[in-house]
Amino acid sequence: MHVTSFINNGTSVSLIRLCLYAVAAALLLSDARLNAYSAPLQTDSSLQVLHWWTSDSERKAATLLANRLGDEGIAWRDAGIPGGAGIGAGKVLKSRVLAGNAPEVTQIIGISIREWDDLGFLLDLDKVSLANKWNASFFPTVQNLIQPRKHVVATPLGIHRINTLFYNRKIFAALKLNPPENWDELVATAAKLKAAGITPLAQSSEPWQVTALFENLILAESGPEYQRELFVKQSVPAALDHRLIDALERLRVMKTWMSNPVEERPWPEVVRQFSKHEAAMLIMGDWAKGELNGMGFATDDEFSCAAMPGTGKYHLYSVDTFSMFANDLTRVSAQEKLARLIATPAVQTDYNAIKGSVSVRRDADPSKMDSCARASWTTFAQGATVQAPSLVHRMATDESTRDAIIVLIHRYFTDDTVTAAQTQKRLAAIFHTFNINNHR
To answer: What keywords appear on the UniProt entry (predicted)?
Structure first.
């Protein structure tokens, strides 16, 4: 293969980047080991933590972890990077690794854990896992995420339900509306809200937020099996299925329920719009609940949660996880303490109550959760048949495929001249190209 064609190929660009990261990893590990062997091994009592928790509720959740880590005698050096879905943090992490300045702890989620682990960057946490019986304590899906190969290389924090519908209780009560359970009821609810002069749905045109709404529609249309065929297996026949057209057309319908024009806003601003009664509904991951609670709105008071209409039996999930970089042997003891701490029942309970997510532990007590969290945790606990890995939040596929799909769906959403049929053909072509490259 010529160099030009190699570089122009999207998948190959990813491989080039991975090779660069691998070289950087080797240099980092080599330097760390030389430093460790040239002087008596000492432990450092601080850890720099890179993450993308920068909203008010997310900062409160991070502060709780920092305080608990401080109780262990270890300082949390915060490196929060703004940007929804971790887009900015991912770029910063890669640049820092290439510069030889990787953080000791970083938020890496989903498929990305395996990619970084394949390069040899991540600290082996098997000792912590075995000592604390993680395999027996965590849901199998969570355990598989943190152990993509032979070794545990991440510690899980919480599970988010992406298919969450938030609705304003006062508006619904005034109009005698019930939370919709299927598409037809959702359409009827939106029509009544519009007739009353109320914006039915709060939404941003930010690319990842648009695609998150779209993957909700895919799940509602056909359930987890089709969702996996489409986003995990990247099946060309699945992309050409009429169900994709149906989901795209429904996305266009939902656009008419939003503010006009649909502005590109960070997700906390969309939540604030909802909190100010400027829209009656919000479809977003349950981190929005953490933000609403932080504003002083109690669950089942000003607002309540339900599943995205048509997805009541399912859980479109994202799992927050931390990985430790194995670039400084003097930090290992502190890194292992943080890993152990995060997974303890007490921290799981307190952290997830602030963040809006639910515990990764199978022994959590749902009776102590609010109605939104209880519905999320009990649904996820039913197992893989009801679970659907989120595309947007890196649970379903690699970065290159994810990014290509997000660009495609965002273009369809923002440009009304682009048809559903054109978008379907382009998605099938993306899958065809990636499938060819992956089998070379």
So the answer is: Signal, Transport
Domain assignment of residue 138, given as a range: 3-157+320-362
Residues 32 and 128 in one domain: yes
Residue 66 belongs to domain with CATH number: 3.40.190.10
Do the domain assignments include residue 189? Answer: yes
Tally of structural domains, the chain: 2
- Do 284 and 355 lie in a common domain? no
Map tokens 């939540």 to a residue. 271
Closest C-alpha among 275, 290, 274 to residue 62 = 290
Cβ atoms within 10 Å of 335's Cβ, excluding its own: 24
**In this structure, which amino acid lies at residue 199?**
T
Domain co-membership, 356 together with 411: no
Reading the block at residue 55, the tokens are 């909203």
Q: Same domain, yes or no, for 345 and 357?
A: yes
Contact call for residues 152 and 277 (beta carbons, < 8 A) = no
Q: What is the pLDDT along the chain (440 residues), one digit of tens a residue?
A: 333 332 333 433 444 444 444 444 444 444 433 333 333 334 568 999 999 999 999 999 999 999 999 999 999 999 999 987 788 898 999 999 999 999 999 999 999 999 999 999 999 999 999 999 999 999 999 999 999 999 999 999 999 999 999 999 999 999 999 999 999 999 999 999 999 999 999 999 999 999 999 999 999 999 999 999 999 999 999 999 999 999 999 999 999 999 999 999 999 999 999 999 999 999 999 999 999 999 999 999 999 999 999 999 999 999 999 999 998 889 999 999 999 999 999 999 999 999 999 999 999 999 999 999 999 999 999 999 999 999 999 999 999 999 999 999 999 999 999 999 999 999 999 999 988 766 55
Residues whose CB falls within 8 Å of the CB of residue 106, separated by 6 or more in sequence, listed in order: 49, 50, 51, 89, 93, 322, 323, 325
pTM, whole model, 2 decimals? 0.90
Sequence-ordered list of residues with C-beta below 8 angstroms from that of 439, at least 6 positions apart, any chain: none
